Amino acid sequence: MRPGSPNRRRNTSLLVQRTDTVGNRTNLVIDAGKFFYDSALHWFPKYDVQTIDALVITHAHQDAVGGFDDLRDWTNNSQSTLPIFIRQQDFDVVKLLFYYLVDRNKQTGGGGVAKIDFEMINHRPFNAAGFELVPLEVEHGEGRSANGYRVGPVSYISDTSKIPDPTKELISGSQILILDALRPERTHGTHLTLEEAVETARELGVKRTLLTDATHDIDHEPVNAQLAKLRDAYGLDIQYAYDGQSIDIDL
Length: 251
What we know:
The protein is α/β, with parallel strands linked by helices. The chain is built from 8 helices and 12 strands. It has 2 domains: 9-126, Metallo-beta-lactamase, Chain A; 130-241, Metallo-beta-lactamase, Chain A, CATH 3.60.15.10.
């Protein structure tokens, strides 16, 4: 696949960056999956990310936590520690996958490990590095859940098969919705199809929707050309996002 193609996709993640009046940046990252290291090398210099001031986790699958070991470069070179905000059920999984990050006494030597402070969250809003986040609990397959998050006018839901009614109420009034849309037609069981995502966006009535978490079934430019027709026909601004996409918002 050619360099720079929007079909080059890494694990879904979000950087929320705030710059103060003297140019200091605060960086919040949602999820650090298997390709975190590659993503950081590619995108962080372009957006002048010098620190990760908070990392927030949606769920404990590898596309969200598989890059935890790569956090060592941040806490051994750039900052003294890294706060990670995580649900208890996801922390229980992380304790098994990355036991040496949870209990540093279990490290075997041969190199430093990431210095992480785990902060437990639940369904209540919380503050992470000065950002106010509202958890958006969603279904991620039958009997399983994941979190999305609302940050100011943006609701971010990367992994879902169904959005419960109470969560829809929390999304209400958002200006931008970033929503899971794995592939067209064929259901996966733990993710929305493209068609289900479009219907969900229509139901929620958010002004602009960016679709994410796409498989190779999605050819970015032709699919977005088809989705653009929804704007004229139904007033729906829905497009697939792409790696490195930047949006200015007021927080």
